[in-house]
Every structure is written in structure tokens, then in C-alpha cells.
Amino acid sequence: VAQPEVLCAFDVRTGRMLWRVRHASGDEASSSVFGGIPVCCPSYSQVHLFLRVADGARSEIRCYSADAGRLRWRSGMHAQLRNLLWLGDPAVDGGSAFAVFIEQVPNGPARHGLACLDQHTGALKWKRYVLSGNAGWRINGAHWLPTVHQGPPAVANGVVYASTGLRSIVALDAVTGLPLWLTAYPSPAAGIVSSDGSFRRCLQHQLRRGPAVLQVHGGTVFHAPSDAPGLVALDAQTGALKWKRDLCDASHLLRGFQTGLCAIGYNAAQIDTTDGRTHNLDKLPGTLLGFPAAAGARLYVATRKKLLVLEPGATPQPEAIPWSRLGIAPP
After folding, report:
1. What three-state secondary structure class fits 199?
2. Amino acid 30: pLDDT
């Protein structure tokens, strides 16, 4: 279980805490910057955990042993990585850890890019700058920057796909870092919002979304950005936009069914990956608690009233298990 300041391990059979590691302060870099609720999506590979750690105004990519929580390496050990602001947790594949960063430039727009670190030592393999620009919006003097908390990239067939933090998705060769394509998705233009209206309320709703983890499925890249209201689907080879759909109330997007994707908000809906249409809408009883979990063909959704078990094609209604039947006091 990970938070920006704490990493813990629990025994799944008893719930007993096995170890706990506390990091440095996870305060925002500035009280005038709001990036939404911090999200953590650690990657697990070869009995090690890889995650982004907050350290005041700085952040690091760190590797811990999964058995005892021992620190193996941190990106701050390497001079080329020391001044980078990491936008999310890394993806790990083929002996490498891939993570998106921002590098500040004096008197100029920040540079956004992707870095590839050695999985075993944290040493830099390659670093690629993708775009330069300023992200987010200024509303009544406050800087709203939703892309500082995003999910990890996705790696498939030797290609790493990542959200740049500047209203776009990039694909790079996982071995060389060579850019293959860069595609912008529809999003409100960054800058000063002079007439607030409903913009802030809509933005607050988006910032309640879970980690915006890219999904690669059937030759298509799917992404629910934190700085845009919809779900976009791009061709994995060319980056061409296939379709875009509004996710409405959906606060979580995940892949877990053989049929494709699922969106969870006030309702649970399957998403047809060919055109983005939603099917099998189910009203959730009670407030959603945390991120849903997928296992095989089942989806588990925790609400304040019950634990829901959804299995597409099995029954028209999800199985609803009261917390009391599980021996758990209602939240």
C-alpha cells in the first residue's frame, strides 16, 4: 500500500502489517499550486517495488525490496536526475523503469519528457525531451495543475506510451528512446481563466479521478487524461485518433474484463473498445470507496453500503455483499 509519504506491506491472510517505510515530507511544492489528490501506482517486478516519492518541493523515483522495504536505489543519487520533477510512478519492463518528468528552464517554458532508468541500479539509460510548454490553468490567482499526479506509462511490444503532461500522448522505442509519434488530444487551452463559471466545478470533478493509467489493448492506446474530460483511443502504431467519448461521472477507468474496459463512477459501465460506447450500466448503491479491483473476469467495487462483484454476461445485476457478512464494520 503506497502513499506519497508512506509505503507499507500487509499480510493478505491476516491483515497484519509486515513493514512500513516513511518518506520525507510530501507537501506541495507551493501552496498556490493545486494538483488534486495525490495518487500512487507502484510497479512490482522481481521482488522489488518502484514508485515516485514526494520530498517537499522535489520528487524522486525509488526502488524498495518487497520483502522488507529496504531502499535499493533512488533517482536523486544520479546528478542527471536530481532536478527533475516526476509526474507519476514508473512503469517497469525489460529491466528498465520508465517515468515522465518536468525539467524547469530559467526564464522559459518547462521541458516535458520521459526517462529510462536501469531497473537494478537507477542509473540513467536515456532521457528524451518531448515538448516544452506551461500546463494547467490560473483561476483567481491559484495555479491548478492536474497533470502533476498521473498514472505510470504503458509498455507493450517494445514501445513505451506516456502522457506528456501537456495535453498529448507520446510513443517511444523502449530500448533507444527514439520518438515514434506524438498526438495531442482535445483539452481546454492552458492559461488564465478570467470567467470561472462552471469550469472550476468541472475541473474539481476530474481531479477526483483515480490514477490515469494508460491502457494498451488490441492495437489501441486508451487514456482518460486528468486535464481533459473524456476518454481517448489512439492507434498504437500511428497515434491517429480513433475516437473520443465523454466519461461523464466516471472517476475510475480500468482494464479487467476480457471484453475491454470498465468505467466506474455513480454507475458501472463496460466500454466497447471499438467505438467507446458504454453498455450494461449499473447504479452503484452508496458512495464509492477507493479504486475498484479487477481479477479475471470479475470486478470488485467497494461502496459505503456493500461490496459489489460484477461479472459481465453472468447476471444482469451485480452481486452485492453487505460488509457485515464479511465480518467488517461498515465504513
Report:
1. helix
2. 46
DSSP at 78: S
What angle (nearest 5°) sits at the alpha carbon of residue 76, between those of residues 70 and 78?
110
pLDDT, mean over the chain: 81
β-pairing verdict for 241-246 and 252-257: unpaired
pLDDT given at position 295 = 73
CA-wise closest residue to 156 among 98, 102, 71, 198: 98
Q: What is the DSSP letter of 279?
A: E
Residue 14: how many CB atoms within 10 A of its CB?
8
Residue type, 30: S
pLDDT of the residue at 251:
67
Structural contact between residues 223 and 212, judged by C-beta atoms closer than 8 angstroms: yes
pLDDT given at position 287: 75
In the chain the first and final C-alpha atoms are separated, in Å, by 19
Could you tell me whether strands 71-74 and 96-105 are parallel, antiparallel, or unpaired per DSSP bridges?
A: unpaired
Residues of the chain with pLDDT under 50: 26-31
3-state helix, strand, coil in the chain (%, to 5): 5, 50, 45
The pLDDT, as a whole number, for residue 206 is: 63
Q: Which three cell numbers stand for residue 18?
A: 509486515
Sign of CA dihedral 301, 305, 306, 310: negative
